[in-house]
Known about the structure:
Radius of gyration: 24 Å
Helix content: 40-55%
Distance between the termini: 74 Å
Strand content: 5-15%
Shape: globular
Bound molecules: ligand F0G
Strand order of the largest sheet: 1-7-6-5-4
Number of helices: 20
Amino acid sequence: MxxxxxxxFISKFKDIFNNKGSELPRYYRPRPYRxxxxxxxxCSVEDFEKRRIIVEETGLNVFLFPAHxxxxxxxxxxxxxxxxxxxxxxxxxxxxxAYGSNExxxxxxxxxxxxxxxxxxxxxxxENLFIFHQGRAAxxxxxxxxxxxxxxNNPNSPRTIASLSNHLEPKLRRMIENKIDTLxxxxxxxxxxxxxxxxxxxxANIENNRMLPLNLPCKEHLRDDEAFxxxxxxxxxxxxxxxxxxxxxxxxxxxxxxxxxGGGQPVxxxxxxxxxxxxxxxxxxxxxxxxxxxxxxxFIQQREEGYQDKSIQNIVQEIFGYxxxxxxxxxKDGLVNIGGALLIKEDGRMFEKYPALGNxxxxxxxxxxxxxxxxxxxxxxxxxxxxxxxxxxxxxxxDYRIGQVERFGKKLKKYQVPIINxxxxxxxxxxxxxxxxxxxxxxxxFKGIALTALLLIAGHxxxxxxxxAFGRCRNGKEYPPKPRVSFVRGAVPRLTYxxxxxxxxxxxxxxxxDNRDRIPGVGVTYGRELSLRHFKSRFxxxxxx
Length: 545
Ligand code: F0G
């Protein structure tokens, strides 16, 4: 064949590959991986009625529905639900289960420096890598140890609302007062941990240790607009106002990347840099909840000026260069089914301010998880994690991963279903207030819960992250979350589903959206006043009348 013709075809193939002429990005590219093993599910038409019975028997609580009876997409969480790569499976076989200093521990130390930068390399001088079985165990360790240190150093901290500075922005002051009120039984917390948005377990761990988690998302975080590419950012003006007036109450600042509660939205490098500058100015350590760090880096690469030509690895290392510490659930961007860690930079502000921290964290770890060289993890899982950390920053992987979530979201948008925009990195968030607009709906109908129950009957599992999950009930009165959060989330497990599966879930959502005025509310039959109530409660569809 003449060369010219071959070149003609190659250029046509490239057009498809580069997705020319299609509104969906990279849709015609092959996936950057192949299935190596598959799991069959029963997918019969008789199962709808069977699922209805189970949904009702389990009190409409999606957490209680047996996963193996879900034929479609299980989008309850992207946490620990990853399909591991063959390279990772091969590492499992090489696991070393020694009680002290197993081989995987040393590999992890090396990999941490490679992934996050040399300044994170754990040395033998001071332990700064604390391994845990998952993210929340790391949160619990950090906040219980920190709370112990703070309350010991400040035994007489005033714990009254009246002690709050009058120079706080009125809205901020009200927000803190309200929070202190709702935390009354925990003994009116004095210390405040500000964040762009704490995840629910992070917030609960802070509260449980007599401190106040405070969300300071940027003003745009609830604006439904593609024009704001970094809606996960922190509101730095309010942060400055808080620090100028109450810095003695602020032991550290947190940044959650990406911002899960706010819709899986990324934080820009400019915002990270600015928050770090403010933290330096006030001498306060900056930490991150870094569960989805590589997805955040991908968004910076794609959306922030000056980063297009940088590798994910470089961007990750720049982000982590601004931090004094971070905690992470490796069940997300570690590409593993279990694992977590807390890392403190050896020469950072955290150890400088709290020199007793390292030793106390090690004690905590020994008492609750295991020897620090394995934390709560098996040696084989450490090996799989090391391999996962190599894959998670690969360009092809991230292009496909985040592109897939985007295509799922775009399908829903095509059906007019209201979702958070821009579409986040790991999940699509259905906006309940808009979804039910125009129907007769009260907050305490908890229609988000009803929607997830009906979706389960359809064969897909979503999760309510809104008025029920984040609201509270005291003495029969409902307190919706502030700022208001009212979503149902479909979180996409990594390397697990094909487009066909996600589009089937989108079809089920469409049916419910098109008939939204027929979706009943739910009554709470158990657990309305409990803490972390969405995990434990039971519900019943309300009779419509
Ligand atoms: N921080 C963030 C931002 C998270 O998304 C999670 C978990 C955690 C901390 C806690 O980590 O589960 O390993 O203990 N998020 C999951 C989710 C559960 O579905 O979003 P963990």
